[in-house]
């Protein structure tokens, strides 16, 4: 029994370590767009390399975003609960977990994440995000310790308790193979930077040197995704000052309603020659990589002396289809093999176009071959089983010369049009 337990623990640690090794870790300068309030945003025009969506976004949509070459961060709040969430009743069932309403956001309530029972609810959300195909998590509202509303509690949440909860979030996300970003709470970076793969910050430019708190985090090779809201002309001077040389990937939006509208802030473009982005990452003009089907056709002709033999093999699967037809006859026989493979590959585009006219002409050619030799075929009806005139015609030596001529017509037709 102890032996089996040791095997189980060893296997579990192996898979956890493997999941952690495969974590997505964005580099500084990676561009992003937060669209959590815009579930039907237009992926065709999205320029950012990373999109952030709600964690309950369908697996089908997230797969589409991946097909366009995007990485997907999935959002949920770990420090509050929105009343409209499908799991609200489960939160409400735990005594003492839901606290007072979050003043800035009606219908959203603070959580006392120290209450026993919240872990299972958070883990359920993480698993849902994982099952939907998310690459990473953005867990919001961990800044209760810094809120005036929370400080009015008889037993308010402390910074030390926040560090414990935030480390637990990181460990569980990594165990599931999900990257995780530290949302705001830049003041706790010294205690948490080693646990998080990237960071997300809102409005650091509004506070003197808050953006600068991320300098060492970025120098360690981890991206910081920023959001700035408001009137761009009014915000530009302070953005140029607070972001210069830091390396934050900043997205600008007019309002806090996180829809697609907005743009990637390039300080070197807007702030002049004295500004340095603070990273070596090149901002792409547009990132649109669509999964395509690659079709490759290979035709080979061989000559050999073998007895008459006909074989047809057809194999099919979700990813590829292979068809091979081998035709042999006595004396000098002709063997033709045509292989078609199809596979889905990201970041590649190859198109094979089939003209309907060519398909019609091929059918007519085969039909003519069949009609021209129908008279001589009557004596060999038992051999005609494959419903392919070519397989049948090569079995009769009496009409060999005519049949080989007809075969060459079909083969040359296929070779010409890549059938």
Automatic annotation (TrEMBL):
Its EC number is 3.2.1.22. Residues 303-368 are annotated as: Disordered. Residues 352-368 have a biased composition (Polar residues). It catalyses: Hydrolysis of terminal, non-reducing alpha-D-galactose residues in alpha-D-galactosides, including galactose oligosaccharides, galactomannans and galactolipids. InterPro entries: Aldolase_TIM, GH, GH114_TIM-barrel. Residues 303-315, 332-341 have a biased composition (Low complexity). Residues 38-258 form the Glycoside-hydrolase family GH114 TIM-barrel domain. Pfam families: Glyco_hydro_114 (PF03537). GO terms for molecular function: alpha-galactosidase activity. This is alpha-galactosidase.
């Amino acid at each position: 029994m102890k032996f089996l337990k040791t095997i189980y623990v060893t296997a579990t640690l192996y898979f956890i370590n493997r999941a952690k090794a495969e974590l997505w870790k964005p580099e500084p300068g990676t561009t992003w767009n937060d669209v959590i309030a815009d579930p039907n945003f237009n992926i065709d025009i999205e320029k950012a390399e990373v999109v952030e969506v709600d964690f309950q976004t369908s697996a089908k949509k997230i797969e589409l975003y991946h097909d366009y070459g995007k990485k997907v961060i999935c959002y949920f709040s770990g420090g509050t609960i929105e009343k409209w969430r499908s799991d609200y009743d489960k939160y409400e069932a735990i005594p003492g977990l839901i606290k007072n309403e979050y003043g800035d956001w009606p219908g959203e309530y603070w959580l006392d994440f120290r209450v026993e029972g919240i872990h299972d609810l958070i883990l359920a959300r993480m698993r849902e995000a994982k099952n939907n195909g998310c690459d990473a998590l953005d867990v919001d509202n961990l800044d209760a310790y810094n809120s005036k509303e929370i400080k009015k509690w008889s037993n308010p949440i402390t910074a030390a308790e926040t560090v414990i909860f935030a480390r637990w979030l990181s460990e569980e996300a990594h165990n599931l193979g999900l990257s995780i970003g530290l949302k705001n709470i830049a003041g706790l970076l010294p205690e948490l930077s080693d646990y998080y793969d990237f960071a997300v910050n809102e409005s650091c430019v509004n506070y003197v040197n808050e953006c600068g708190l991320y300098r060492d985090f970025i120098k360690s090779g981890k991206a910081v995704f920023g959001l700035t809201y408001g009137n761009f002309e009014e915000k530009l001077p302070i953005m140029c000052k607070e972001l210069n040389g830091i390396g934050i990937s900043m997205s600008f939006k007019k309002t806090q309603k996180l829809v697609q509208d907005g743009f990637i802030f390039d300080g070197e473009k807007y702030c002049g020659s004295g500004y340095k982005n603070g990273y070596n990452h090149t901002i792409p003009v547009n990132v649109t990589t669509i999964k395509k089907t690659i079709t490759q056709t290979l035709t080979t002709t061989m000559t050999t002396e073998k007895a008459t033999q006909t074989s047809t093999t057809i194999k099919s699967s979700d990813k590829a289809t292979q068809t091979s037809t081998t035709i042999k006859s006595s004396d000098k026989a002709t063997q033709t093999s045509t292989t078609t493979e199809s596979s889905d590959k990201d970041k590649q585009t190859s198109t094979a176009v089939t003209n309907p006219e060519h398909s019609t002409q091929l059918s007519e050619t085969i039909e003519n071959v069949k009609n021209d030799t129908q008279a001589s075929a009557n004596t060999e009806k038992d051999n005609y089983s494959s419903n392919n005139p070519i397989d049948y015609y090569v079995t009769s030596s009496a009409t060999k010369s005519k049949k080989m001529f007809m075969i060459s017509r079909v083969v040359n037709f296929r070779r010409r049009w890549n059938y």
